[in-house]
Amino acid sequence: VGNALKWFPDRRGLAAGLTAMGFGAGSAFTVVPIQNMIKASGYEYTFFWFGIGQGLIVMLVALFLNSPAKGQVPAIARVSLARRDFAPKEMVSTPVFWVMYAMFVMMAAGGLMATAQLAPIAKDFNVAGVPVSLLGLTLPALSFVLTIDRVLNGLTRPFFGWVSDNIGRENTMFIAFGLEGIGIYLLSLYGSDPYLFVILSGLVFFAWGEIYSLFPSTCADSFGSKYAATNAGLLYTAKGTAAAIVPFTNVISEQTGSWHAVFLIAAALNIVAALLALLALKPMRARAARAAVMEADRVA
């Protein structure tokens, strides 16, 4: 993703989305094979051979990657708000970074909750093993969700990245984050229907996966291309912070006797993040851009 942000500065959203799409949609091809191998040979055997295979592929493809040389891309992209390149230490001292970090945590928490707890949620809704026929396929609801969600989770990344290149990062965040909040809330209400469980889970994942294109591209727009990979990596640690929240969802569900409260909290976090995109991040980035222009004029 860091290389994509550098090579295509005028289409950062789409470039980051296409790069990250492999992480989301690629796993759709391995869901059923991994499940079958686990049943036949166990977790240890399956993880060992799939891990070796994936590692070898990554090492091979990495040999063909390179960073752009000076002059190969514009010094300042058309969509960029940055007038200089911020080093990581400078970036983490800005309010814009921490607002993005908080939004990333809010958004990642809901998606990780859905990913980690999808199986127990499906079982509690009594739909896990119910056959569902959609798009010419018939699979148990949980297996259907695990497959289609990976595809949608991959497709959403270049789609919303492309949208953000055309209508702006924050506007796209507001739409996508709000859509996920609505999807999570509807899933809590209608998830006991196996067909709606599959469809609404797909909507949730479609509206969640775009964080892996929107946040890296917004980060590069705001803080420049030179340290884009490192800066995006620092911002990405928000996913780890969000992951620390996920285990508490089990505690909440056990105390309340259902997943409804967990869904409401996740939906609320998404709506708050959507509002922050328009009401906080957008004006803050605009002010930072104006200040950078004034500073450049003063130096000149």
- How many strand elements? 2
Round the Cα radius of gyration to an integer and report it.
20 Å
**Percent of residues in β-strands:** under 5%
Low-confidence stretches: none
In the sheet with the most strands, the strands line up as: 1-2
What is the general shape?
globular
Mean of the pLDDT scores?
Answer: 83
- Oligomer description: single chain
- Spatial separation of the terminal alpha carbons: 34 Å
Give me the secondary-structure category: mainly alpha
SS element count, helices: 13
Main sheet specs:
2 strands, antiparallel
Approximate helicity band: over 70%
**SSE series:** HHHHHHEEHHHHHHH
What does this protein structure show overall?
The model has no long low-confidence stretch (mean pLDDT 83). This protein has a two-stranded antiparallel sheet with strand order 1-2. It contains 13 helices and 2 strands, in the order ααααααββααααααα. With 300 residues, the protein is an all-alpha fold. Helix content is 76%, strand content 3%. 43% of the residues are buried.
Write the layout of secondary structure elements.
Elements: H1 2-7, H2 12-25, H3 31-41, H4 43-62, H5 88-91, H6 95-124, E1 131-134, E2 137-140, H7 141-167, H8 169-190, H9 194-208, H10 211-223, H11 228-243, H12 247-256, H13 260-299
Antiparallel strand pairs: 1-2
